[in-house]
Inverse folding.
């Protein structure tokens, strides 16, 4: 017990308050540029993302700054006339702000720096991805809370832009419950 | 809570339908293939031993696999084999005839069709390694002993005039010269990149293509690997229904080899699958048009 207590206090001292793990999935829309000469305005993929808030520091009673990391897989797009947009794997990290709108509703906004793992001659691709999410507490359990989350994000690539919208589940540890 | 979830699902559905993929055919409706092979026995260029089996067996494999996948297919076989073939024949693969064949096939295509241009023969580049100077060494014309050439630019322009999507598969030395770099930065002056053209080549620009023996005959190493991926068995015979003697009427061309078992083949075969099927070794590595887009060659119906 003493070890757990000391460890948890050390985490608090390092700013580890209310860490969270989120799994979300949904629609990824690649918006082709003019050079792609696509007949479709958007290419529809699916995606799944596992995201972890690794650092969370309370600035005020209802406002926190966080640092999150993620790994995400985006599926191949639906084909059209035989052409499809390829699948890819990304890693990302970045800061965000979390605002507690009410005891059961949070809103978070931030920006991730994302790295797409190489799969062809393009090599590693990097881009920024601003995002926002709203979450609602589903239930409170012994060591934390379970939320339903609706995240939205944008991928600001140099050759095209992509939008992501999904739905997910967040498990947020409560520091006072550790 | 229920309203919250329903709102999220509704937004996802709206976004999914905004892409309009569901309003168009998912897949290619018909495949047109031009399969070119040259052994150079009627010219002053070094003879090649694997190119005729490459082209004929690739045509046979596509004939058979499209039959099994139930995809309409029109194949053209353009061979320069031995020293007896007449340069006057419409399917003799001189540069002029190749461009005429591309135009002829283009007249048969519509926007949902796919054109596959397959070439097995010599390729070269000039010493300055400029990607725009890659050439395919096509058959000599008339009485000359010299081969004719198809440049990167000429091939790209000829294919650009066709409707639908185009896949170019080249088994030749330095064929990587034909693969335009994907413009990651949307460079406006990028003239080589054409989004309707997808290239897969046997080598990078500075590499030479190798031949290998398979049973009793030779193949290009690259083509041999593609045929293996397509479950091509070098035993048996396939009666391929292709245009090889006339542009008016298909004939039956007996190809050595067959596809008898499709159980290991995926329902959908993409150009990236073909690239992944090749083995980068002996100083030869396949190169594919990069970028976020790829094309489905075959889908089982």
């Amino acid at each position: 017990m003493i070890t757990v207590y000391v460890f948890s206090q050390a985490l608090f001292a390092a700013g580890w308050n209310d860490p969270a793990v989120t799994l979300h999935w949904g629609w990824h829309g690649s918006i082709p540029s003019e050079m792609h000469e696509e007949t479709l305005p958007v290419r529809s993929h699916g995606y799944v993302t596992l995201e972890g808030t690794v650092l969370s520091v309370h600035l005020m009673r209802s406002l926190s700054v966080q640092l999150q990391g993620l790994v995400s897989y985006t599926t191949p797009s639906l084909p059209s006339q035989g052409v499809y947009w390829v699948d890819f794997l990304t890693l990302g990290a970045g800061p965000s702000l979390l605002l507690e709108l009410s005891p059961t509703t949070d809103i978070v906004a931030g920006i991730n720096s994302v790295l797409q793992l190489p799969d062809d001659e393009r090599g590693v691709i990097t881009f920024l991805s601003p995002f926002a999410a709203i979450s609602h507490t589903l239930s409170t359990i012994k060591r934390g809370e379970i939320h339903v989350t609706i995240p939205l994000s944008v991928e600001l690539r140099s050759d095209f832009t992509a939008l992501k919208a999904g739905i997910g589940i967040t498990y947020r540890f409560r520091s006072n419950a550790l | 809570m229920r309203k919250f979830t329903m709102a999220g699902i509704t937004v996802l559905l709206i976004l999914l339908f905004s892409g309009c993929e569901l309003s168009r055919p998912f897949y290619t409706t018909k495949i047109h293939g031009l399969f070119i092979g040259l052994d150079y026995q009627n010219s002053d260029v070094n003879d090649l031993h694997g190119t005729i089996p490459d082209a004929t067996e690739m045509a046979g494999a596509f004939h058979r696999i499209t039959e099994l996948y139930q995809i309409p297919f029109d194949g053209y076989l353009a061979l320069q084999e031995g020293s007896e073939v007449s340069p006057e024949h419409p399917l003799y693969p001189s540069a002029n005839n190749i461009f005429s064949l591309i135009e002829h096939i283009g007249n048969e295509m519509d926007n949902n069709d796919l054109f596959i241009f397959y070439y097995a023969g010599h390729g070269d580049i000039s010493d300055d390694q400029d990607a725009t100077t890659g050439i395919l060494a096509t058959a000599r014309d008339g009485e000359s002993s010299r081969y004719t050439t198809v440049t990167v630019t000429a091939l790209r322009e000829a294919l650009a005039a066709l409707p639908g999507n185009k896949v170019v598969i080249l088994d030749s030395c330095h064929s990587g010269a034909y693969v335009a770099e994907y413009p990651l930065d949307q460079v406006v002056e990028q003239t080589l990149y054409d989004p309707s053209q997808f290239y897969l080549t046997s080598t990078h620009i500075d590499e030479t293509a190798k031949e290998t023996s398979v049973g009793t005959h030779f193949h290009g190493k690259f083509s041999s690997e593609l045929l293996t991926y397509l479950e091509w068995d070098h035993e048996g015979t396939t009666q391929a229904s292709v245009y090889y003697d006339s542009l008016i009427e298909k004939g039956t061309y007996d190809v050595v080899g067959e596809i008898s078992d499709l159980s290991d083949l995926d329902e959908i075969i993409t150009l990236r699958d073909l690239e992944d099927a090749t083995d980068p070794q002996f100083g030869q590595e396949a190169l594919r048009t990069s970028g976020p887009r790829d094309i489905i060659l075959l889908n089982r119906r």
